[in-house]
Amino acid sequence: MSLSNSILSKPVLEDLPYVEAVLNYLTPMAEKPVYYTYEPPPGVPKQNQVYEKHKLPIRNARPIIQDLSLDREGFAYASVNSAVRDFYDDDEVRHIYYREAEELLTDVTGAKKVLVFDHNLRNIERAKQGENGVEEPIKQVHTDFTAKSGYSRARAVLTALGTDDPDELLRHRFSIVNVWRPIALTVQESPLAVCDAQSIAPKDLVVADLVYRDRVGETYEITYNPAHRWFYFPQLQPNEALFIKCFDSAEDGRARFAAHTAFDDPTSPPDAPPRESIELRALVFYGN
């Protein structure tokens, strides 16, 4: 099966409105990139990456919403409400939003089974105040998993849930999908940009260690390639959601790793309220 021909061809791109904005790419480096999620031991830097800025067109994806595919471009869109009243209430998110997202992803992907396994809240003001579980938007181009860590994270989640024979499940195709949505006002500050996965070359993906207190994960940092095709959804509302393919076990032409990043939108009002958003990650099992 081959899905390598993206709909986002040059004629389509030229017809889409865009903003020009700076994105932060990894500067090529000899050593392996490392980032500590906590304060590291004395003398150890929190990270060793250096980023370089590239000013690029980021195109408005709203005119092509109906044509986007998780399996081709690696990202897609849905207009969908949530019954959650307070996304900062962890219990409400886990008991209501997780179930909503599992049902939504089942409909969107046709999967046989969907398991949501974690979520992050983004709000720069609350993060700076040290609120537990709230982080700042990430403004470096990256993906959430690698060809290796997609499997290891899935196995760890299934083992923690007491699943019988996780390896049997993982012998069949599965993916990890990020569901991203605003949780308060319209997004005007630090919107999310996503890169057409078909425009990312394997050489652009650099494995990086993400060090936690109890484990080490892997993500991909991304080096610059002028072939990258970037998109965003301006003025996203709380009743809108994006799906981003973070990993796919299939190696048959389907999108596997859709890079993404927050960015400074030059059209944002100077007094725009900080972006408030939630992203959750889900294992999507297709049974084939």
Q: Which features characterize this protein?
A:
alpha+beta; Jelly Rolls; 5 helices; 15 strands; globular
Write a brief structural summary.
With 288 residues, this protein is α+β, with helices and mostly antiparallel strands. It has helices at 10-15, 90-109, 124-128, 149-160, 166-170; strands at 18-26, 34-36, 51-60, 75-79, 113-122, 134-135, 142-143, 174-182, 192-195, 205-211, 216-222, 230-232, 240-248, 260-262, 277-285.
Describe the structure.
- This protein is of the alpha+beta class.
- It has a domain at 73-204 and 224-285: Jelly Rolls (Sandwich), CATH 2.60.120.
- Helix content is 17%, strand content 32%.
- The protein contains five helices and 15 strands.
- The chain has helices at residues 10-15, 90-109, 124-128, 149-160, 166-170, and strands at residues 18-26, 34-36, 51-60, 75-79, 113-122, 134-135, 142-143, 174-182, 192-195, 205-211, 216-222, 230-232, 240-248, 260-262, 277-285.
- The strands form three sheets. It has a six-stranded mixed beta sheet.
- The chain is globular.
- The two termini are 13 Å apart.
- The mean pLDDT is 94.
Describe how the helices and strands are arranged.
Layout: H1 10-15, E1 18-26, E2 34-36, E3 51-60, E4 75-79, H2 90-109, E5 113-122, H3 124-128, E6 134-135, E7 142-143, H4 149-160, H5 166-170, E8 174-182, E9 192-195, E10 205-211, E11 216-222, E12 230-232, E13 240-248, E14 260-262, E15 277-285
Parallel strand pairs: 2-10, 3-12, 5-6
Antiparallel strand pairs: 1-3, 4-13, 5-15, 7-11, 8-13, 8-15, 9-12, 9-14, 10-11
